[in-house]
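Colleagues,

For the teaching module next term, I've prepared a clean inverse folding example: a structure given as tokens, and then the sequence designed for it. I'd like students to try predicting residues themselves before seeing the answer, so please don't circulate the second half yet.
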């Protein structure tokens, strides 16, 4: 009678046909989400490089939950990792015994690094969405058009744009709202800073004429009727995008009733005015800029509200009397009133003056 081997050894072998596997290591917080009762969908995404650009950066694959983005990084190991499968013994005349077979091996694993940032999707949206700007015709009316001109079939939809951005959908949505991007029957667009300033002036003027206090609850459709009644050619999706951008976060659940958040709007308008002058590459006079900024705000919002402190990180001063959009580049001199330079020159002596008595 055949007896079973009690030595404790386990038969070990390699399967004749090896399989291809990639091992992905999940961080603890993501593993907990995946193992929950209602796990969210996970999506693999990667950016599509723009056509006809050989210098485009290499697109990295990311793993996205609905709200977070994980960059996938391959980590090599000096030890081989075996993926095993139980296999029953096949020798005739012996009791069945269980062994293991290697069905795949790997010398690298995939690790996930959380890379979620509030503005991660902005450069991708700027790259994909055509610019929408307002042009003034001979009659003084504003006509909206895309620049550069993009054929309708080449304009991405909002869904298509999000699919080609290696960032979670929630982060894409935050960037979409932040830049007042919108979608109409012809595709998705991002408005130019100048067109946003013009639209805000029109909203402010229409609200003032209609007696609507912007920082108190009002019906968005009522304001749109006032605005469209003035003959403005702005598309309603852009108008809705601006109201969504400027409403308080706590009011986001209401579709019709809305109000304008003063704390968000004041620095937003100031930044847009500066950015709209960026293409001219000319510095703005500080006094003229502050005056123009204040003129775009309701009377109750003025009174010292327009200060460069509200635009920290978005502008800098080439001189005490000028201001420029963006951040100061390395090596640029800080604004100087001229007193420091004069005092430095006065205190500096020639080499032979150092040997004079007294």
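(Answer key — instructors only)
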């Amino acid at each position: 009678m055949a007896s079973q081997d009690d030595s404790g050894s386990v038969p070990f072998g390699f399967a004749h046909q090896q399989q291809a596997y990639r091992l992905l290591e999940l961080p603890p917080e993501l593993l907990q989400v995946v193992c929950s009762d209602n796990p969210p969908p996970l999506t693999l995404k990667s950016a599509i490089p723009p056509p006809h650009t050989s210098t485009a950066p290499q697109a990295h694959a990311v793993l996205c939950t609905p709200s977070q983005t994980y960059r996938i990084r391959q980590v090599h190991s000096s030890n081989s990792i075996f993926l095993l499968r139980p296999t029953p013994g096949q020798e005739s005349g012996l009791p069945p015994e269980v062994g293991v077979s290697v069905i795949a091996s790997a010398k690298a694993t995939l690790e996930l690094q959380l890379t979620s940032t509030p503005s991660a999707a902005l450069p991708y949206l700027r790259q994909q969405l055509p610019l929408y700007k307002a042009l003034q015709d001979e009659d003084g009316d504003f006509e909206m058009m895309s620049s550069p001109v993009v054929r309708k079939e080449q304009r991405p939809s909002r869904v298509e744009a999000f699919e080609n951005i290696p960032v979670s959908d929630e982060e894409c949505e935050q960037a979409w709202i932040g830049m007042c991007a919108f979608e109409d029957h012809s595709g998705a667009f991002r408005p130019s800073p100048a067109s946003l300033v013009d639209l805000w002036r029109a909203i402010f003027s229409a609200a003032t004429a209609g007696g609507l206090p912007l920082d108190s609850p009002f019906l968005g459709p009522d304001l749109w009727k006032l605005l469209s009644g003035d003959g403005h050619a702005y598309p309603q999706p852009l108008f809705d995008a601006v109201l969504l951008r400027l409403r308080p976060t706590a009011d986001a659940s209401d579709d019709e009733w809305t109000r304008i958040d003063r704390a968000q709007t004041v620095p937003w308008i100031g930044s847009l005015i500066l950015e709209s002058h960026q293409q001219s590459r000319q510095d703005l006079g500080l006094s003229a800029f502050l005056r123009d900024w204040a003129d775009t705000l309701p009377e109750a919002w003025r009174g010292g509200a327009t200060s460069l402190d509200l635009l920290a990180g978005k502008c800098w001063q080439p001189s005490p009397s000028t201001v420029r959009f963006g951040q100061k580049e390395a090596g640029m001199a800080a604004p100087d009133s001229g007193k420091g330079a004069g005092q430095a020159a006065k205190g500096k002596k020639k080499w032979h003056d150092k040997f004079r008595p007294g």
